[in-house]
């Protein structure tokens, strides 16, 4: 299984428009963070988790030629705004895109991309097969995805475990029951927004603590704010088992 970090930034991305802070003006490529998403390639299939506003740019940068399914964590705009661009894959492969989303996320997609569902479709709009995603093991193109329901303040969000890989992007609480699903994972990706407390995201310290509790072989932090600090400085504060993810990082599991 190959994982590509398509984006590792929080909702506004890094740099933030008009911000002059040291992170936003850094010349280090690892301080340039598009909105959070990953590409999972396994058994000859390709899956994208979330289609944020930078989806098109991410597909072009990584030269992604096919996506078998899009799987949504939740409906916030930084995870859905680029959805229209899946139509490029419709045109190239002449087939509908499989899309997996919870009832609530499906409602948001139907509302925010209503033209996709209209009775009189304008030619060239996205063509999708929408599948219901529930909190139970789901086989997607022959690959098992185990949803993990985490809390993003009051909003339930899906993380996913695929074999020895677990991906959780927008959380500040995980129940003991859901944590059981993560245990034994070799690689854990976790959101770590910044050092100061936040209403809906784990802080740096909270994320480190959770990694110490779960004890994966390796953890990667994502969904990072400019407020966390410079990549090269922050990484010095981490134990050897945890890395700060960056855009374009690839790992094989
Ligand atoms: Zn987010
Ligand atoms: Zn900034």
Q: How do you describe this structure in short?
A:
The chain is of the alpha/beta class and 253 residues long. It has helices spanning 55-61, 77-80, 87-93, 103-112, 176-182, 204-214, 231-234, and strands at 2-7, 37-42, 45-49, 69-71, 97-101, 128-132, 138-140, 143-152, 155-162, 165-168, 187-191, 218-222, 242-244, 250-252.
Structure description:
By secondary structure, this protein is α/β, with parallel strands linked by helices. It contains 7 helices and 14 strands. It has a 7-stranded mixed sheet. The chain has a 7-stranded mixed sheet with strand order 7-8-9-10-11-12-13. It is globular. It starts with a strand and ends with a strand. The protein binds zinc ion (2 copies). The site of one zinc ion has 7 residues, from loops. One zinc ion (ZN) is lined by residues 11, 36, 76, 78-79, 170, 223.
Mean pLDDT: 96
Q: What is the H/E order?
A: EEEHEHHEHEEEEEHEHEHEE
Q: What spatial form do the alpha-carbon principal axes imply?
A: globular
How far the N terminus sits from the C terminus, by CA atoms, comes to: 5 Å
Q: What low-confidence regions span 5 or more consecutive residues with pLDDT below 50?
A: none
- As a percent range, the share of strand residues is 25-35%
Give me the side-by-side strand order of the main sheet.
6-5-4-3-2-1-14
- Subunit arrangement of the protein: single chain
Radius of gyration: 17 Å
Figure out the total of helices: 7
Let me know the number of strands: 14
What are the bound molecules?
zinc ion
| Fraction of residues in H or I helices | 10-25%
Largest sheet, described in full? 7 strands, mixed
Structural class: alpha/beta
């Amino acid at each position: 299984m190959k994982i590509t970090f398509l984006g590792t930034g929080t909702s506004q991305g890094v740099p933030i428009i008009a911000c002059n802070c040291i992170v936003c003006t850094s010349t280090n490529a690892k301080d340039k963070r598009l909105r959070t998403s990953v590409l999972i390639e396994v058994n000859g299939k390709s899956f994208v988790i979330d289609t944020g506003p930078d989806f098109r740019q991410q597909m072009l940068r990584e030269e992604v030629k096919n996506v078998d399914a899009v799987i949504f964590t939740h409906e916030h705009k930084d995870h859905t705004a680029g959805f229209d661009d899946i139509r490029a894959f419709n045109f190239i492969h002449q087939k509908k895109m499989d899309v997996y989303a919870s009832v609530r996320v499906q409602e948001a997609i139907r509302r925010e991309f209503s033209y996709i569902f209209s009775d009189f479709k304008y030619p060239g709009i996205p063509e999708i097969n929408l599948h219901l995603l529930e909190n139970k093991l789901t086989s997607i193109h022959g690959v098992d995805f185990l949803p993990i329901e985490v809390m993003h303040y009051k909003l339930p969000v899906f993380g996913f475990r695929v074999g020895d890989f677990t991906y959780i992007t927008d959380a500040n609480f995980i129940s003991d029951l859901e944590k059981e699903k993560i245990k034994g994972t070799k690689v854990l990706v976790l959101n770590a927004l910044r050092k100061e407390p936040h209403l809906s995201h784990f802080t740096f310290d909270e994320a480190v603590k959770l990694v110490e509790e779960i004890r994966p072989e390796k953890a990667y932090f994502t969904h990072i704010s400019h407020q966390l600090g410079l990549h090269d400085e922050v990484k010095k504060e981490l134990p050897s088992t945890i890395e700060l993810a960056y855009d374009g990082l690839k790992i094989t599991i």
